[in-house]
UniProtKB/TrEMBL annotation:
It comes from Herbaspirillum hiltneri N3. The keyword Transcription applies. Residues 1-14 have a biased composition (Polar residues). The keyword Transferase does not apply. It comes from the Bacteria. PANTHER family: TRANSCRIPTIONAL REGULATOR, GNTR FAMILY, TRANSCRIPTIONAL REGULATORY PROTEIN. Keywords: DNA-binding, Transcription, Transcription regulation. This is GntR family transcriptional regulator. The lineage of its organism: Bacteria, Pseudomonadati, Pseudomonadota, Betaproteobacteria, Burkholderiales.
Length: 249
């Protein structure tokens, strides 16, 4: 593996405790996977970043064995790429891949919403409403990571309420590849405001058990995220595009 350094978002330094805290030994494998996944989703580890095992082990306070196990899991999820000659790096999707993946995800979300309205329980609706209000509270505090985690919990619960195991597994696998991009889609205030408004409408449609309406909202919600990703920089305050041009625009 090349002896390259970890490229981090300028707002998050390797020495920052909030960005890279030492990890506890309990359930180390799952903890490392979750921690690295969050660093990728929140753009601390940027697309295309080459991962230096020695530096990651030192900053996270772990040995190479759990790190390598975690990298294999993230590679299976499509979040990183492992090359025998070049080592591991954070995956970087082309614009065509982004376009097509969001397009497919919009259909999966729409189906989840329609089926959920037929099968969801009152308790599950109440749980989603509670998450929605918690999500809005995070937005009011400009807490994007907190907002995003509750946002994803809402989408996951709608998918789970569809009661379709094949749909659920397909959704989970595809969504892992899009998590970092969905997080970035709210970097601009107007896009964040629009996404929050969509969630207001989702809750109303879910309460009314209006499957057609919820499906339409979810489909457009994902397509709007796609368009936001393809028209915004990789990170706030930069002019670096997400990827090259696509013929789909």
């Amino acid at each position: 593996m090349q002896n390259s350094t970890i490229e981090l978002n300028q707002t998050e330094k390797p020495s920052s405790p909030a960005a890279l805290p030492k990890l506890e030994r309990q359930r180390l494998h799952d903890t490392v996977v979750e921690h690295l996944r969050n660093l990728i989703v929140e753009a601390v580890l940027m697309p295309g970043t080459k991962l230096n095992e020695r530096e990651l082990c030192e900053t996270l306070g772990i040995s190479r064995t759990p790190l390598r196990e975690a990298l294999k899991v993230l590679a299976a999820e499509g979040l990183i790429e492992i090359s025998p000659n070049r080592g591991a790096s954070v995956s970087k999707m082309t614009e065509t891949e982004i376009w097509e993946t969001f397009e497919l995800m919009s259909g999966l979300e729409a189906m989840s919403g329609e089926l959920a309205c037929e099968r969801i329980t009152p308790v599950e609706v109440a749980e989603i409403k509670a998450l929605h209000y918690a999500m809005l509270a995070c937005k009011a505090q400009n807490d994007l990571p907190g907002y995003y985690s509750r946002n994803q919990a809402i989408h996951n619960k709608i998918n789970e309420a569809a009661r379709n195991s094949v749909l659920h597994q397909t959704y989970l696998g595809l969504n892992r590849r899009l998590q970092a991009l969905r997080f970035k889609s709210n970097f601009r205030p107007e896009k964040w405001d629009s996404a929050a408004h969509d969630h207001d409408e989702m809750v109303k449609a879910l309460e009314a058990r209006d499957g057609k309406r919820l499906a339409a909202i979810l489909r457009q919600h994902l397509l709007d995220k796609r368009d936001a990703v393809l028209n915004v920089p990789v990170s706030p305050g930069t002019d670096e595009p997400v990827a090259g041009k696509t013929n789909n625009q």
